[in-house]
Structures are given as C-alpha cells and as structure tokens.
Amino acid sequence: MSSIFPNFMLRPVDRALAPALQAKIDGKTKPLGALGRLESLALQLGLIQQSLAPQIRQPHILVCAGDHGAAKAGISAYPQDVTWQMVENFLAGGAAINVLARQAGVQLVVADAGVAHDFGPRDGLLDAKVGAGGTANYLEEAAMSAAQCAQALANGAAVVQQLAAAGCNTLGFGEMGIGNTASASLLTHCLTGLPLADVVGRGTGLDDAGLERKRALLAHALKTWPERTDAPLAVLARFGGFEIAMLSGAMLAAAEAGMVLLIDGFIVTSALLVAARIEPQILDYCVFSHRSSEAGHRLQLDWLKASPLLDLDLRLGEGTGAALALPLLRAACAFMGEMASFESAGVSQK
Fold first, then answer.
1. Domain extent at residue 20
2. In a domain, 5, yes or no
3. What is the DSSP letter of 290?
4. Domain check: are 114 and 210 in the same one?
5. For residues 27 and 11, which has the higher predicted lDDT (pLDDT)?
C-alpha cells in the first residue's frame, strides 16, 4: 500500500464522542429510539465528522467507467459498446443517475477510467484512462498489470483529493462497465471465500442459459490463475476493471480525508472489499445505501455485517442507490441540528 500512496494514513474513527452524541439524540423531543435507523445514522455521521452537529457539505457522486476484455466472451447480455454509449448518456444528462442526482441535489463526476473509446476532450468528463482498450481478458491472462492497477488506484485518490480540497465531505460511488458484474463476482469470491456460484448473478439480465455460461466462464477464469492468492491488489489486478480499481483508490483517499463514503451496489461493494482488505478501518466511514436484488450483493453485505438503509430491488448501478439514500443522510443531520430537545421545548420527559 505504501508504494501506491506513500504518505497514506487511515485512522479508525474515534468513538470518544459517542456518549455525547447519543445523549443529544436521546434528548430530542421523541421517545427513545423512535426515529429508528435515522438515529444510528446520525450517530455514525457525528462520529465520522467528530461533531455534535454533523453536516452534509458539497456532496458528490463519482461514477467511474471502464471496459473489460472478458466482456467479448459473452459474460453480459449487452455488447461492449454500451459502456461508451452510456457514458455519452451520462454526459447528456439522460441516465438514471443524472435524474436521481439532480433530484437529490448532488453533483456528479464522470470519469473515464479505461473505456474502449476515444471521447476526446469533453466537458463534464474526467480523463483518467489507464488502458485505451479496456482491461485484458482475464479468461486468458491478468486483466491489468501491477503498474496499471497502481495507476488506476492513484487516479481515484487524486480525484478525491481535489474534491476534499473544494470542501466535499460526502462522496457516493457509482460505476459503468459492461461485464463488470462478472469481475465483481470474481473479486468477491477471491476476497471473501464465498462460493463462486452463489455470487454470480444475472447482471444486466442474462437468461438461465446465459447465467450458466457466465458461471462456467468464471470458473474457468479461476483455473487459469495457478499462482492464485487472496492478496487484495493481486486479486484486483487479475480480475478487476480499471473502473473498480479507481473506485478502490477513491474510497481509501476519501476515508483518509474523513469523508462519509456512500456505498452503492454489487460492483461498488466489490471495490470496497478490495479497499477494506487493504485498510479494514475504512468500514467505519461507510454508509451502505441499499441492498441490491443481485444475489451476490446480499452476500457481500452479510459478510461485511453491513446494514443498508434501503431495499428497493435495485440492480442498475451507476450510483443510483447512493443518490436515493443521500436525502436520509441530510435528514439525520437536520434532526440533530434543528429538532428541539425536551429541555429547550419545555416538554416533560418520561
């Protein structure tokens, strides 16, 4: 890790403020615990920010896009060109994440981490391309070299450092890349030990035959790696995507900056699995936005002992779950800052 981010330092969240935060929550004009998950969310935000009055400032969602060499082998229901076409949709403001980000009042950052397309200089598109043609085909060789993996991680960290310098303290994560649910399945299996078949899902909508083909291809991919290890960076380089690696680097940098990390679905959580194996304390900074209908995501969350805020049967990606959950973070901060206490309102307690 030090060879990638030489001065990286992630401290666990200091819980010394927890009693004061809990007393403030309990002192609001309501029965104890009556605001349910909103109360535990307020406590977490206060601990991350080390403040009795947490705030969501200049929130952003970072959407990283990249192509996967294995996609051409038929692991997705969609052709690889959809990756660059959807990036164009993001830039035009017409994708689901654009709509939901606008509705939530959150700014969107779209990054080309390694799409097999030449966009040229474009307003609204961050050029963080590592490989012009996307990753290599992990069914035959490593998806990326160690140097490429390190560059993608560093690119993610650099984006976050700029956002932090501009005052952002809350960052959601999203992705786009045809074939990346397959990559996420391999990462999840290798990093958690969960059975491969259990974490391989339909992705963009495979039928039964397509799902079985996908499972067979991913089982074959594991067999082509005789020197297999569970070292996170080695797993990431073997089976990851440039967009997933960029997200992992961004997450580590965001936690180091003391940001709230708003985690989306299956692919984003696979990037978090990498980051958490590198620095387990990153989980203190994570708010899990939703539980996807992708079977592997439910298993990831169980393995992480994570409790998501929403369960809406989403399986789109793009950071859509993060955008939908952001108003809940604002609500948690609002009740902490604006709701009267029993004492201030002159209301009798139990």
1. 15-54+335-345
2. no
3. B
4. yes
5. 27
Cβ pair 115, 89 in contact under 8 A = no
Q: What residue has token string 């991919």?
A: 221
Question: What's the rounded mean pLDDT across residues 35-56?
Answer: 98
Residue recorded with tokens 């995501």: 297
Which pLDDT score is estimated for 2?
A: 47
pLDDT for res 74: 73
190 near 183, Cβ under 8 Å?
Answer: no
Residue 318 annotated in active site: yes
342 vs 28: CA distance, rounded Å: 6
- Residues 104 and 84 placed together within one structural domain of the fold: yes
Both 310 and 339 in one domain: the answer is no
35: Cβ contacts below 8 Å, ≥ 6 apart: 28, 335
Per-residue confidence (pLDDT) for residue 132, from 0 to 100: 87
> Among residues 88, 140, 318, 338, which one is catalytic?
318
- The pLDDT score that the predictor gives to residue 47 is 98
How many CA atoms lie within 13 Å of 55's alpha carbon, on the beta-carbon side?
7
Q: What is the pLDDT of residue 316?
A: 95
Tokens 């200049």 locate to 58
Number of structural domains (the chain) is 2
Let me know if residue 231 belongs to a domain.
yes
Task: Tell me the two tokens of residue 201.
Answer: 């899902």
CATH code of the domain containing 33: 1.10.1610.10
CATH of the domain at 306: 3.40.50.10210
How far apart CA 187 and CA 327 sit, in angstroms, is 30
Q: Which residues of 235-255 are buried (b: 16+ CB within 10 A; e: fewer)?
A: bbbbbbbbbbbbbbbbbbbbb
The per-residue pLDDT for range 122-178, each reduced to its tens digit, is 999 999 999 889 999 999 999 999 999 999 999 999 999 999 999 999 999 999 999
Q: Does residue 4 carry a pLDDT above 70? A: no
- Span 223-247, mean pLDDT? 96
**Model-level pTM greater than 0.85?**
yes
What is the spatial distance between Cα 252 and Cα 258, in angstroms, rounded to a whole number?
10
What number of CA atoms fall less than 13 Å from residue 163's CA on the CB side? 32
**Predicted pLDDT of residue 3:** 54
Task: Evaluate whether residue 4 is within a structural domain.
Answer: no
Q: What confidence score (pLDDT) does residue 210 get?
A: 81
Residue 275 lies in a domain: yes
Same domain as 41, residue 85: no
